[in-house]
Specification:
It contains twelve helices and three strands, in the order E-E-E-H-H-H-H-H-H-H-H-H-H-H-H. The mean pLDDT is 94. The chain is 58% helix and 4% strand. It has a single domain, classed as Cytochrome P450-Terp, domain 2 (Cytochrome p450-Terp, domain 2), CATH 1.10.230.10. The chain is globular and about 60 Å long. The protein starts with 10 loop residues before the first strand and ends in a 10-residue tail after the last helix.
Length: 265
């Protein structure tokens, strides 16, 4: 057996050089491209256009932090129990990414990508075609008892402030594509079919934006995790200075009512 199957085009190191995406890390990347640019390059295997970089950067900023969410509390409480292990606290926060927090980025990306591919939509598709595709997709989800990805938010009941800004940036940068446009049509279709107005949430808009940028929908959640890592590190730095984990634990312990089950003796 040969070693020819062990291949990677991401990065490589020699005693005197590091190469990433085919470019010399020290001479061609450091100080010349932004972290956002490099994140795009690692996935797309090409440099982003100015418009693509602007939208991706806005997506990452939009997902960095949203306050004391359950994922942040998981990180802070892990730090309370193991302050010597920053990586464990960050991991605890990232592991909480799912269908309610952060996960909708990936779920929405997959959803809109599937509809756009199935209906053969593109940048030139008209509002009528997008509306018909959205209505059919929403009806199928509702008939199957499933929720529509990218809609609704526990705090932002009417408008998630990140969403109109992402759409504005995509439009200004010339990169608004069928996935973001479809998501807006999905919002309208869901309101018509359900009789209930649910806003597009920031995570959903981010997922549609990432897909419009040509990034693989199955790694969209990874960009949400990349962004939220910065937020978690910020929270953990604050936790070290102004700890609330132990106080939170004690408050929960104080309020907890012990109710033994029927089998208790």
């Amino acid at each position: 057996m040969t070693d020819e199957f062990i291949r990677s085009g991401i990065g490589h190191s020699t005693p005197d050089a590091i190469t990433v995406c085919g470019l010399d890390l020290a001479d061609e990347l450091m100080g010349r491209v932004s972290f956002t640019d490099l994140a795009f390059m690692l996935m797309a295997r090409r440099a982003p256009t100015a418009g693509e970089a602007r939208l991706l950067d806005a997506v990452l900023v939009s997902l960095t932090d949203h306050g004391l969410t359950p994922t942040v509390l998981a990180a802070r409480l892990t730090h309370t129990g193991a302050p010597e292990s920053l990586q464990a606290a960050v991991a605890a926060g990232l592991l909480g990414a799912g269908s309610v927090f952060l996960g909708p980025t990936g779920d929405t990306a997959q959803f809109v990508a599937e509809v756009v591919a199935r209906e053969r939509l593109d940048r030139d598709s008209g509002d009528e075609a997008l509306g018909e595709a959205a209505t059919a997709a929403v009806r199928a989800l509702r008939d199957g008892g499933r929720r529509v990805p990218g809609l609704g938010h526990p705090i932002h009941k009417e408008v998630d402030p990140r969403v109109p800004r992402l759409y504005a940036i995509a439009t200004e940068a010339g990169v608004l594509g069928p996935h973001m446009r479809l998501l807006e049509a999905v919002r309208a279709a869901n309101a018509e079919l359900s009789g209930r107005e649910l806003p597009i949430n920031g995570a959903g808009a981010a997922g549609a934006a990432l897909t419009d940028l040509g990034l693989p929908p199955d790694v969209a959640r990874g960009f949400a995790l990349l962004a939220r890592t910065a937020g978690l590190v910020g929270h953990l730095a604050e936790e070290a200075r102004q700890p609330l984990g132990m106080q939170l634990y004690r408050e929960v312990d104080r309020r907890m009512v012990y109710e033994p089950g029927d089998g208790a003796r």
